[in-house]
Specification:
Blueprint (H helix, E strand, L loop, with lengths): L1 H24 L4 E9 L2 E12 L2 E8 L2 E4 L2 E5 L2 E6 L4 E8 L2 E10 L2 E11 L18 E8 L6 E11 L2 E7 L8 E6 L2 E7 L4 E8 L5 E7 L4 E9 L24 E3 L5 E3 L9 E7 L4 H17 L4 E9 L4 H15 L5 E6 L2 H7 L11 E5 L5 E6 L8 H19 L3
Parallel strand pairs: 20-21, 21-22
Antiparallel strand pairs: 1-2, 1-9, 2-3, 3-4, 5-6, 6-7, 7-8, 8-9, 10-11, 10-17, 11-12, 12-13, 13-14, 14-15, 15-16, 16-17, 18-19, 20-23, 23-24
């Protein structure tokens, strides 16, 4: 009996040791649920980790959206997921069954570290078993967001689809959209989040007795908490994005000269742009909507270059240091296959950006797209970019923009 107990204890010790070695050896492929703490609750996001031989790939999941990380490295119990085009990375190490680490990225005020925890095998977003939803949120909503001062209101449009307790959607403002929000309506509690490698946000709300929504949102990195409310409204509209930014009186064209990534000055007067239709985008690698625009614009320009289309990106970066701004832009260009000039035009401060382009009313939003015809005349200035999360608005923009470019390319110089 004594020998049997000893043998059982020995087997148990060996089993525990083996188990410990498996945990120490590593990170496992499959679903991982990451969680960031915020003042309004946990902000989760989902990652699928896959392996092919020695190569690993981390895929961010935001409802219908899938984003493969640019680099994924697994070394024993340490995982690093990097997004050089955002100048951001997630890095953590296993502590028992929990991965602990931080998301590191640049902001206008320097480098920021946001702690996270993650667990393997959890594919749910907010709740493993949400309770039955009390209403169906599918449809269009008029959204009002209040700044922290409680006085300044920003109006937007919420577009949501719901299947059972699962909710997907986006909130669309004049200056941007929230990208692909994904989450649930559990009872009368709404919780939505997104994370794309550099941008993350959490939206929570309670369904009110009258069917409206009232809650708070959190912006990762900035730590900004905003109160918001929404009511159903199929007729809600935003201002026309083609009218918000315009040429000042006395100007009939755009002129500038900024250095490209090799330090050489580039201007619209250069021979390569003569008699061409030119798209000038005012952008920044730190801007999530600019990433959406680049995914569309890079292949669009490449496909139409032989017809006489060119583009220039005026980059307004966080860093005032030329070399750092160039490094960020090179990574961004590599990510999206950008083969048109990217110019270092200044920093992301909108007042400074506006001063660098005195002929336009103001740089209100990143990105802003200026369309110039073969004669050098400005034919349209479009504020912001409706990303794929905006659904039909994204498709409508692509159709209208393509029709405009086709029209301008057909015109003579």
């Amino acid at each position: 009996m004594r020998n049997a107990k000893f043998a059982a204890a020995l087997i148990g010790t060996i089993w525990l040791a083996a188990g410990h070695q498996v945990a120490a050896a590593g990170i496992e492929p499959g679903p991982w649920r990451f969680v960031i703490s915020s003042p309004i609750g946990d902000m989760p996001f989902n990652v699928d980790l896959s392996r092919s031989g020695e190569a690993w790939t981390a895929t961010l999941i935001n409802g219908p959206e899938r984003i493969d990380a640019e680099t994924t490295t697994v070394a024993g119990d340490t995982l690093t997921i990097a997004f050089p085009s955002y100048d951001s990375r997630l890095s953590g190490a296993l502590d028992g069954e929990t991965l602990r680490g931080a998301i590191t990225f640049n902001s206008a005020h320097g480098s920021v570290d946001v702690p996270f925890t993650a667990r393997h095998g959890e594919a749910f977003r907010f709740s493993p078993k949400p309770t039955e939803a009390k209403i169906d949120l599918s449809g269009t909503w008029a959204v009002t967001a209040l700044a922290p001062d409680g006085k300044t209101a920003t109006h937007g449009i919420g577009e949501f689809t719901q299947n059972g307790t699962a909710v997907d959607g986006s909130v669309i403002y004049v200056n941007a959209d929230t990208r692909f929000l994904n989450g649930e309506l559990s009872g009368d509690t709404l919780a939505l989040s997104t994370f794309d490698g550099g941008y993350g946000t959490l939206w929570t709300a309670q369904v009110q007795p009258d069917g409206s929504l009232k809650g708070k949102s959190f912006l990762m990195g900035a730590g900004l908490v905003t109160a918001w409310s929404a009511v159903r409204d199929d007729t809600v509209m935003l201002p026309d994005p083609n009218t918000l930014t315009y040429l000042k009186d006395g100007y009939d064209r755009v002129e500038f000269s900024f250095p490209d990534l090799d330090g050489k000055p580039v201007s619209l007067a250069d021979d390569r742009f003569k008699d061409k239709v030119v798209i000038v985008t005012i952008a920044g690698t730190w801007c999530p909507t600019c990433h959406d625009e680049a995914r569309f614009l890079a292949p669009f320009v490449a496909a139409n270059r032989a017809r006489g289309l060119e583009a220039i990106a005026l980059q307004y970066e966080y860093s005032p240091e030329f070399d750092q701004a160039v490094a960020a832009c090179r990574k961004f260009a590599r990510r999206y296959g950008i083969d048109f000039p990217m110019l270092i035009a200044g920093t992301s401060d909108k007042a400074a950006a506006s001063a660098s382009l005195p002929m336009i009313s103001a740089v209100l939003v990143y990105p802003t797209m200026i369309v110039i015809d073969r004669k050098g005349e400005v034919r349209r200035i479009h504020t912001s970019f409706p990303g794929p999360a905006t659904g039909r608005r994204h498709e409508e923009f692509k159709r209208e923009f393509t029709a405009l470019i086709d029209e301008l390319l057909a015109e003579g110089a």
